[in-house]
Design goal:
four-stranded antiparallel β-sheet, five-stranded antiparallel β-sheet, mainly beta, 0% helix, 13 strands
Length: 140
């Protein structure tokens, strides 16, 4: 299992290729590619590379999927016997990132493969045969 620990928004996050994560709002538009270079640790399934504080030559390639907001958190402050009550709400602004690949010294440690397939057509008659073509595209 390939994973990396990256720092973004002042927080550390364990990421794996092919999964999406919500981080604090980033100023990039949706559907843009980013490269996170503040990588603290890279594990390729066999050995771990630990940085001091960052791993040299390590990057995590991500795609900005969308900007969204987290669930509402209610903050209720009350002072007893003073008739003072404050009710506030907060929704954190987030960015959803899809991790495409983890690179160490230019070599891809883990990545996702995109499969491009076509839909199968239903045969009209019992004896009719339908040919379906499928193409596999690998990014690396």
């Amino acid at each position: 299992m390939t994973f990396a620990i990256v720092e973004t928004g002042g927080k550390q996050l364990k990421v794996e290729p092919g999964r999406f994560y919500d981080v604090d709002r980033l100023p990039n538009d949706a559907e843009t590619q980013l490269s996170l270079d503040q990588v603290l640790l890279v594990h390729d399934g066999k050995e771990a590379t630990v940085g001091q504080p960052f791993v040299k030559g390590a990057t995590v390639e991500v795609t900005v999927m969308q900007h969204r907001r987290d669930r509402k958190i209610l903050v209720y402050k009350m002072q007893p016997k003073k008739k003072t009550r404050k009710k506030r709400g907060h929704r954190q602004a987030l960015t959803r990132l899809m991790v495409d690949a983890i690179h160490l010294d230019g070599k891809a440690m883990g990545g996702t493969t995109k499969k491009k397939t076509t839909k199968k057509a239903k045969p009209k008659a019992e004896g009719e045969v339908v040919a379906v073509e499928a193409e596999v595209v690998a990014d690396s």
